[in-house]
């Protein structure tokens, strides 16, 4: 068994531990992720919710994605760092921000989503599979 993925916000008020390997890891270039990250993409690893433990109280805000589904973004109310996302339509998954990992080098992106919204000034690994929007389920 591999060691858990651990991480949290910058000040340590929110911490998580995840048992198991990511189901999917991606760079997302949708406009919502661009705005939240302050750059051209967000980087995420998605896990089964069953293996996740979170300590600390996150502040959350809901937004509706292109699919019409609500995603809840969670951030630290103390330092403001975005840490994770959950999805009302998929309550069994938990998505962490790759940069929130204690060991960010464990993050291995598999694909780029919403490549249709890419900017020339934010080039990503050309070897990654690119999807114009979200990949088929």
- Radius of gyration (Å): 14 Å
Structural class: mainly beta
Kindly report the average pLDDT value: 93
**CATH fold-level label:** Metal Binding Protein, Guanine Nucleotide Exchange Factor, Chain A
Domain CENP-V/GFA: 5-125
Family: Belongs to the Gfa family.
InterPro entries: CENP-V/GFA, Mss4-like_sf
GO molecular function: carbon-sulfur lyase activity; metal ion binding
Overview of this protein structure:
It is a single chain. This protein has 137 residues and is mainly β. It has a single domain, classed as Beta Complex (Metal Binding Protein, Guanine Nucleotide Exchange Factor, Chain A). Helix content is 5%, strand content 40%. It has one helix and eleven strands. It has one helix spanning 31-37; strands at residues 5-8, 15-18, 24-28, 42-48, 52-55, 59-64, 70-75, 82-87, 90-97, 111-113, 129-130. The chain has an eight-stranded mixed β-sheet with strand order 6-7-8-9-4-3-10-11. A three-stranded antiparallel β-sheet has the order 1-2-5, with no helix packed on it. A hairpin with a 6-residue loop joins strand 7 (70-75) and strand 8. 27% of the residues are buried. Pfam families: GFA (PF04828). Belongs to the Gfa family. It comes from Bradyrhizobium manausense. InterPro entries: CENP-V/GFA, Mss4-like_sf. Keywords: Lyase, Metal-binding, Zinc.
């Amino acid at each position: 068994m591999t060691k858990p993925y651990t991480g949290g916000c910058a000040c340590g008020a929110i911490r998580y531990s995840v048992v198991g390997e990511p189901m999917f890891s991606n760079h997302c270039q949708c406009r919502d992720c661009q705005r939240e990250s302050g750059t051209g993409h967000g980087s995420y690893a998605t896990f089964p919710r069953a293996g996740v433990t979170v300590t600390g109280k996150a502040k959350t805000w809901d937004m509706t994605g292109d699919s019409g589904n609500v995603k809840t973004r969670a951030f630290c109310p103390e330092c403001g760092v975005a840490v994770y996302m959950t999805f009302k339509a998929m309550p069994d998954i938990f998505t962490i921000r790759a940069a929130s990992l204690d060991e960010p080098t464990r993050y291995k992106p598999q694909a780029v989503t919403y490549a249709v919204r890419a900017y020339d000034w934010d080039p990503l690994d050309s070897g990654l599979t690119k999807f114009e929007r979200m990949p088929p389920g």
